[in-house]
Amino acid sequence: MAVIKEYYTVKLHDTDAAGVLFFANQFRIVHDVYEQFLIRIGCSFRERFTVGDFHIPIVHAEADFLQPLQVGDTIEITLSVSEVGNSSFTLAYQLIDLDGWVVGNVETVHVTTDPASKSKIDLPDGFREKIQEFIEESD
Amino acid sequence: MAVIKEYYTVKLHDTDAAGVLFFANQFRIVHDVYEQFLIRIGCSFRERFTVGDFHIPIVHAEADFLQPLQVGDTIEITLSVSEVGNSSFTLAYQLIDLDGWVVGNVETVHVTTDPASKSKIDLPDGFREKIQEFIEESD
Amino acid sequence: MAVIKEYYTVKLHDTDAAGVLFFANQFRIVHDVYEQFLIRIGCSFRERFTVGDFHIPIVHAEADFLQPLQVGDTIEITLSVSEVGNSSFTLAYQLIDLDGWVVGNVETVHVTTDPASKSKIDLPDGFREKIQEFIEESD
Amino acid sequence: MAVIKEYYTVKLHDTDAAGVLFFANQFRIVHDVYEQFLIRIGCSFRERFTVGDFHIPIVHAEADFLQPLQVGDTIEITLSVSEVGNSSFTLAYQLIDLDGWVVGNVETVHVTTDPASKSKIDLPDGFREKIQEFIEESD
Which end of chain C is more exposed for a tag (fewer CB within 10 A), N or C? Predict the structure, then answer.
């Protein structure tokens, strides 16, 4: 099963006065990897805004924060597709430190919607295929 | 049961090129109300950093995004305590538009830890009482 | 000369591991007051995106950071118009603590541009008048 | 004269509903390169917080925004030291698109201060030497 892997080094602006990563930034950081995923399956955000035949809003997100992360910490972030439904798909992210410990994880649920009516639509065929091809790729 | 209510108007920097609130910012925005909560129960972040006898990291957070929010939209954010455990407490937030529709919600789980060992400790008595008093307040 | 005044309390997410306001956030925070200014002169961002007959990008910004700000600090932010040119206007912001000391300031230079060609255009007459009326208002 | 060069791809969260990079994020993004600079001269933020014999707050920052940047745009960011004074140093950053056009620039002025008194101190000798060595390096 295919996985995207990116390295990220925690920046000063990711942290807060408690000295560690501000929790909301964990969601922001994994979204960068989601943008890589969209590019990899041939469907960048830029194209999404131009073509605009469907939208992909996030309808649910959740995360666990297992270890505090400090400025300068480098982590590996992995993205995999954990579920594909009729009109939605779910992505799972792991944040792994350089010793191999999982220090956090995130899940995001995305639905496809009609840009005009904003109501849910089935995953467009071409898009579903691209996700399926990604899943079946070997790394 | 006590509830904190704050109004918030979506700022340009909260949105992204898709024209709506960037999902991670929903977590950031409700944390501002959590900071109000800490002040209201007499336990501000400033004090936390100074006294430092225990920490309160967030170990889990999740959110639903029910309606897209645009720059200039004003919402009411409510905070309530949904659970108090031995070494943790859970806060529930609702984002409500001016017509009374729930447009989003968030849940955050906080644990109390020892600053030195980073391991979980029971909610300190004084802190537990403050949370309990808040819950029992009438608005 | 008219001035907009807003109070702001520094949030945890505004700070970084150095314990004080992360410098870029001072620019973000004063932009919230600029959004108030646009609403006050009858020209909100929402309307800008809908009508879209001209854009108002920021072409220059600068700031002084005179005193470190910590989580929980409340400041007053003032906005005034410091210059109106042919195709640009300049806003000046002061950040003032509750004892009346100026702890920071920001200046932003805005130009009006044609949405299609992206090139500078003269301030549209109606917009120029709204800015002028604001300047001449007494508080 | 030594220059640090980093590539950066504009993320969705860097943009706003106007469809382009939110101006304050240009300051945030170049700070990431400053963090690289501190590591390169052997003086990371992590070390700064631990050793803590002097602080390096930013006292002034300014930027020009020459071309709008969109999600997915990749730019090169260069950092160079433009001035070293008794108790301050100034860094200059350029944002250059892949065709070689300068699309933005930033300048940040940093002073060295005593952690206890918060007053300005001369650049500590070891720190001044590290900056000087960086300047004299060939790329």
Answer: C
